[in-house]
Amino acid sequence: MSITVEKGITARLTHPWLRQLHVAFVPGPMTSLLQEVADGLLQRFRVHGHHVQKRPSNRTNVALTTAPFGEPLSWRKALLFTARLRFRLRRSPTAYTLVNATPREFERLLGHFTTALAKESLDLADYTFPGLASEAYRVLFEQGRRGGPILALERLIQAQAKSIRVILVVGDNRPERAYHFDLVGAYPYSDATDGLEDFYDDIVLRIVTAVSATEVTKHKAIGEPIPSNIWRRLSTPAAMHAAGQQLGERHFFTEMVRVSDLVRVPAVTDAISSQYSEGCFATWEPELNALIATVTGSARPVDKGSITEDDLAVIVGVRPDGNGALVRHVEGKRNDPPSSEAVEMMGMNEPLPTLSLDPAWAIAAAVPMVRSKLHGHRGIAAYDPEWVEYVPLASPYYHYLVTCGTNAQAQGVKGAFARSEALQNPDDPRQVVFTVLPGHGAFIAEKWVVGKAPFQVIWEYMDAGYLQVDSLVPQGLMAYIPSPDGRMILQAP
Known about the structure:
single chain, alpha+beta, 9-stranded mixed sheet, 7-stranded mixed sheet, 15 helices, 26 strands, 30% helix, globular
C-alpha cells in the first residue's frame, strides 16, 4: 500500500510495503488535549483503511495508550508490560504511549538538560528524577552527551512512562507538534502548523511505517560447525578485535543502554531486551566465503571496543524467506546470533559485482566488492567527495523512518549501496561509501585495498578528515552541500 500525501508543504511518497493494521485505544491518565489527539488519530486511522477496535484482541497490531508527563507510571499499569495478561492475548501488540507536555513544561525540561550537559563535570542532582533507578543518572548523562539534551529528555520520558515508543505531544489547548521516540533514540516530530488533519495523518503514517516493518532476526544455523583448527588460523578474528579497538579509540561506538540502569521493572526480557547494542561491524573472510560479524548486543552486553572471539558470528547467507541470516557455528566457541543488522550486511552484496582478488592478497578468491561494513548510532557531519561517496536512501526513508533489525531497513540499505558508483566500478578511486539512516545512524562500507587491514581505510579517512563522524544523527530530510574547502557539509533542518 503506497500513499502519496498531497497536503502540507510537500508531497510525501510513503513506503510501498505498508500494511492495514488493527488499532485499539486503551486510555491511561488523560488530559483534554490527549483525548483530542487520540480521537483525531483514531479517526485518521479509519480514513486510511485501518481497523479501529474497541479493545485489544489477538488481531491487534497497535495499542495506543496514555501516560502523565513528569510523573512515573507504575509498570503494573503500563500497557507494554501488561497488555498480554490484561487482555488475554497470545502476543503483545506494539504499544504506543501518548504523553502531553505544555510548551512551557517542554522548554523547561529541555533547558534543564541543556544547562546540566554544559557543566564541566556531572552533577548527580541534575539527573535525579522520580521513578528512575539509582544508576539512571549515568544513562541520562551519556545519552545527552551522545545526542544532546533532547535525547536525555527522551530517555527520561520513556523511563517514567514505562514505554519504548512514546509520542510526546507538545501543546496547551491544541497540539503544536509531536515527537516520536523509539528504542534507538530517534526523535523526529510531526508539525501541526499546516493543520490538524495533516498533523494526524503524519503521526498515523509514522506509526503504520514502524509497525509494518517486520523483524528479520530469525537467524538459522546451517551446515557443519567450522573446525576449531581452521578458525584459529584465520587472521580475521584478530583483525576484528584490532578494528574494534581502533574505532573505540575514536569514540565511534556509543555506550550500551541497559534498561535496568534506567528503570526497575520485573521480567524486562518478556517485553523488551534488557539492553540494546551501540552498533555493529563485519568484514569478509575469503577462506570461509563468509562475513565475520559482531554478535547481537540485545542478548548480552557486548563491548564493541574490546571484542573477543565469542563476540563474533559467521554469516554465510540470507534465509530464502528473508526473515534472518544463515550462520555457521564454530567448534568449541560460544555461538551467539549475529547483530540485528545481519541481513542487511549480507544482503547488500547481492546487487553489487564481485571482485577477483589481486595476487598481492596471497589467496585466489572471488569476493564481494565491499570488504568491511561499519554501523553505529552516529551521523556524518562532512565528507570529502574526492575520497568518499555518499549514497542517499530512497525518498520515503527521510519522511517515514524505519529502524534496525527490520526488512525495511535492509531493503533501504541494499538499495542505497546498489546505486553507488564507487561500488559498481572497481576502478573508482573512492574506497569508502556511506549512507545515513535518519533517526538511527551511519552505515559505512569499505572496499578492498592491498596492504590495509579490515576497517583501516575507514579509520584513516576519519583521521584525515575525509569522513567526519558526528554525535548528532539527522532526524529526517538531509542533504550535503559544497563548502569552500571542497568538502560536502551536512545540512539538516
